[in-house]
Amino acid sequence: DQQVKQNSPSLSVQEGRISILNCDYTNSMFDYFLWYKKYPAEGPTFLISISSIKDKNEDGRFTVFLNKSAKHLSLHIVPSQPGDSAVYFCAASGPYSGGGADGLTFGKGTHLIIQP
Amino acid sequence: KAGVTQTPRYLIKTRGQQVTLSCSPISGHRSVSWYQQTPGQGLQFLFEYFSETQRNKGNFPGRFSGRQFSNSRSEMNVSTLELGDSALYLCASSFGVQETQYFGPGTRLLVL
């Protein structure tokens, strides 16, 4: 049973526009959420995180929104650039989360393609 | 500051063999976690070590084991390899537990 779901395997966005990547989770014990970006043949690179006590966190072009009641988070990238083309993973952690208390539970990723 | 390093980067083994993968965390980081990435299952948590002690373990069989040394370097071992163990094995380190994890490039294991 997938506890973290990214329902869009791929997303295509024009350069300069906003990219919105979505993630849903089922385990209400998750209290910390992260987004990672991954290029082929490399390990995931940490992008941005959010604690469950907040509903928004910004870092430059990246903003993560958390809606706890809907168990939903999203990553906004504005404006999108060609170098943003990669696979984006949503991850969650928390006590008794099933990934170990401190292990991350990942979604299966969304392949973002930025078109010129 | 150097990132997380993993050796070897690529490995080919046959069924029934065993394999040991190595991970050197970012300097000063004391927590090391291991993950398996496969096309079907995505990224799955294997185990986490902190101060040479295994703190948490994911849902993997006992053939998967690991250890951490006093310098925080970690190794993971897979015994009696199966075809389904073919995957990218990722190591991540963090300064402490429940802190942001930074990943290495991974070791790609192919079991024939």
List its salient traits:
heterodimer; A: 116 residues; five-stranded antiparallel beta sheet; 11 strands; 0% helix; B: 112 residues; mainly beta; seven-stranded mixed beta sheet; four-stranded antiparallel beta sheet
State the helicity of chain B in percent bands.
under 10%
| Proportion of beta-strand residues of chain B | over 45%
Largest pleated sheet of chain B: 7 strands, mixed
Tally of helical segments of chain A: 0
Average the pLDDT over all residues of chain A and give the rounded result: 90
Largest interface: A-B, 25 and 27 residues
Rg of chain B, please? 13 Å
Put simply, the count of helices of chain B is: 0
Strand content of chain A: over 45%
- List how many beta strands of chain B DSSP finds: 11
Helix content percent band of chain A: under 10%
Principal-axis shape of chain A: globular
Order of helices and strands of chain A: EEEEEEEEEEE
Radius of gyration based on Cα positions of chain A = 14 Å
Beta strands of chain A, count? 11
- Class computed from helices, strands and strand pairing of chain B: mainly beta
Poorly predicted runs of 5 or more residues of chain B = none
Task: Estimate the mean pLDDT confidence of chain B.
Answer: 93
- The coarse silhouette of chain B is globular
Oligomer: heterodimer
Q: Which series of helices and strands of chain B comes N to C?
A: EEEEEEEEEEE
